[in-house]
Amino acid sequence: MTLAASLKQLIVSVLTILLVAGCTSSENPENASSTETSASLNKPNIVIFYVDDLGYGDLSSYGMTATSTPNVDALAADGIRYTDAHSSAATCTPSRYSMLTGQYAFRNDAAILPGDAPLIIDHTKPTLPKMLKKAGYKTAVVGKWHLGLGDGFVDWNKDVKPGPLELGFDYSFLMPATGDRVPTVYLENHNVVNLDPNDPITVSYEKRIGDRPVGTESPELLKQTADLQHSATIVNGISRIGWMAGGKSAEWVDEDFPYIFTDKAIDFIKASKDQPFMLFFPFHDIHVPRVPNEKFAGKSGMGPRGDAILQMDWMTGRIVDELKQLGLYENTIILFSSDNGPVMDDGYADQAEELRGDHDPAGGFRGGKYSAYEAGTRVPMIVTYPNGLINKGDSDALISHIDFYKSLAKLTGVKLKKGEAIDSQNVLAALLDSQADGRKEMLEESFTLSIRSGKWKYIEPFDGDTPGWLANKTAIENGLQTKPQLFNLENDLAEQTNLAEKRPEVVARLQNRIDTIRAKK
Predict the structure, then answer these.
(1) Rounded CA gap, 360 and 428, in Å?
(2) What is the pLDDT of residues 256-285, one digit of tens each?
(3) Which of 40, 140, 351, 518 is the most buried (most CB within 10 A)?
C-alpha cells in the first residue's frame, strides 16, 4: 500500500470513529427520552435492498461465474462486502419481522404466513420506520410484504388496515403476500390498485371459490407446472396457493414487476429528495414463481432463476442510478442483502436445478432456505456510504439483520426506550468500517434455533413436527435432527463433522445461552 493510500485509509478510519462516537447514544437507559437527535449530524438517506431467496453464492462479487451482476458488484466495489452476515431467520416472514422490530421472530411465533393472515407486527409497538420518523425521516416500503395485513378477516374491497402505514411507513406499494399466493393484486397504502367495485375480490385458503381455472384441472394453461400446494387459482398462466374470485381489473402481470416496483420506488425518492428518507425495497425476485420480464428471459443461461437474478440486478442499478442523477447517492447509506438463503425447487417446475450447471447458490456452505445449517441465513451483504465516512473492503464481522435497528438508531441519533429492539445490537462501527468487529455471538432461527459463538456453531435438537410441505421437498437439507449438533467453523465451514458427543461441555454452555436468550423479556 502506498503512503498516500495509507493516509487516506487512516483519515477514513478517524472520520468513521468520530461519526460513530458523535452520534447520540442509542443504548437503552431506563429514563431516556423517546428521541434525541444530534444537530451536528447530516442524516443520510437510507435505502435497504432486501432480495428474496438470494444465496451467498448468487452474485458475481461473491464468486458466481455463470452470469454477472454488474450493478450489485459496483456497490460491493464502492463499499463493504461482508462474508459473515446473516438474515435473522432462514425463511422470509421471520427475517422481515426481526429486521423491522429488532426482536427475534420466535418471541411472536412469527412463521411463514398464508396470504390472508393478519398483520403479525403489533402496530402499537415500536418499529424501525417509527424510530426513523422520530429522527425526521420520510419512510416507504415498496415490494413484497408477507407480514400479514388487517386484524383478522381482510375485506380487500375496503381499506386494508392495519398495515405498513400503521407501522410507521408514510407510503407503501405492496405485493400483499408473495407471488405464489393470492390475492394477485397490488396494494397501495390501504387500497387495492385498479379495483372495480362492481367486481369485488374474495379470497379463500380453505375452499375453492370463483370461476377461475385451477392448476390441477387446467395444466394446459400454465407457463410452469407446479406441485399440489401451488396448484389452485391460475392468474397470468401461473397457478397459486389459495383461491381468488373477482378483481379481474386489479390482477397483476408477473412480468411487469421490475418496472412497476422500481418506478414506484423512484417516484418516492423524487418526492422525498428534500428531506432525509428511508426506502425499504423488499424484492419479489428471486422467489417463485420466477417469471422474468422479456428483457431478461433466457439471458442468464440458467433458466428463470438465473434470469430473475439479472432482473434483480437491473432493478438495483436503476434505483442507484436515480440516486446519482438526483445528487443523493453521496449522502445515502445503502444496505443490500437477502432475507434468507437459496432454494432451487420451491414448488414450480422452472428447471432451476437442472439448468444451474456448476453454479453453487449456497457458495460452498451447507443447506439453504429453511435450513438450520449456515446457508440458511448466511447471505451476501453489502453496505455503501460514498461520502467518505466508510472504510471500504471485505469484512468478516459477524452481523445479523436484526442489528439494523439499533445501528440505524445510533447513526441517526435516536435514543431507544427501555425494552425497544431488545435483540438488536449496535454494530454501526462494522457497517462503516470493514476492519471493525461485529457481534460476539448470534442466534439463527429456522424450524429450530442455532447459535454462533466464536468458532462454534450449535444447532438445538428439534422435537417438533416437520411441516408436510417441507417434508415433501426432499432436496432441502433442513438440518432438523433430534440430537444436538456442534460444528467448529474454524476448520469445518461446511458443517460436516458433528462434535456434540466429543464436546458436551460446549453443547451445555451454548444450550444455556439459547435458553437465556429465549427467556429474555
Answers:
(1) 31
(2) 999 999 999 999 999 999 999 999 999 999
(3) 140
